Amino acid sequence: MHLDREKILEAARVVFGRHGYRKASLADLVRPLGVAKTAIYHHFPRGKEEIFRALIDREEGAVLGEMEQAVASVADPRHGLRALFLAKVTHFQELRRLLCVPRDVGEEVAALYGAHGTTFRERERSLIAAFIRRGQEEGLFRPGDPDRLARTVQSVLNRQELALVFEETPEVMTREVDELLDLILYGIMKEGYGDD
C-alpha cells in the first residue's frame, strides 16, 4: 500500500469524527491504514496535532470552495448571505452524518477549531462584507461600516453553527437558517430602534 498524506488524512477524518481529538490515539489513526506509527511521522513529523491541523486546513478549503460557489450563483445580496451560510452548515451536517459524529465530539472539535486563529474566518467575513457592500450600494441595507457589520453577522451565525449542524434533518436546519437570517436582515421591531 502506497501511503501518502491524503490517505492519512482520510483515515484521520473518520477516527477524529468518531472519537474526537483527545480520545483518538496515533495507534487509532494507523490501524485502518495497516502501517506502523513511523510511517505517519514521515508525513507528519509532529504527529496527531499536525494531522489534525492539516485536516482542518483541508476541510476549510473544501467548505470555502462550496461557499464561494454558492455565492457566485446568487445575485441578490439578501439571498447571497443565505446561500453562503447554508453551503457551510450543509457541508458540516453532511460530514457529521457521513462520519457518524456524536454531539460531544462535534463540540470538542468546534472548541479546538475555535481556538485556532484561521484565515477561514477572515475569508468568510470578507464574503459577508462583500454582500453587505453590494446591498448598501443597491439601497437594500442600511449604511455603516461593512466590515464591522460583517463581523457582527458572522459572530451571530457562527454561534448557531453547531446547533444547526446537529439538527435532525436538512429541512429543519434550512428553516432555522431562514428564521435566523430573517431576524438579522429585518429584525423583530416594526419601527426602528429609538423611534417613538
Walk me through this protein's architecture.
The protein has a single domain, classed as Tetracycline Repressor, domain 2 (Orthogonal Bundle). It has helices at 5-23, 26-30, 37-43, 48-72, 77-99, 103-115, 119-137, 146-165, 170-186. It has 9 helices and no strands. The chain is mainly alpha-helical and 196 residues long.
Q: What is the strand and helix layout of this fold?
A:
Layout: H1 5-23, H2 26-30, H3 37-43, H4 48-72, H5 77-99, H6 103-115, H7 119-137, H8 146-165, H9 170-186
Q: Give the biggest sheet.
A: none
Number of helices: 9
Please, what is the average pLDDT? 88
Structural class, from helix and strand content?
mainly alpha
Oligomer state equals single chain
In short:
With 196 residues, this protein is mainly α.
Features:
196 residues, mainly alpha, Tetracycline Repressor, domain 2, single chain, 0% strand, elongated, 76% helix
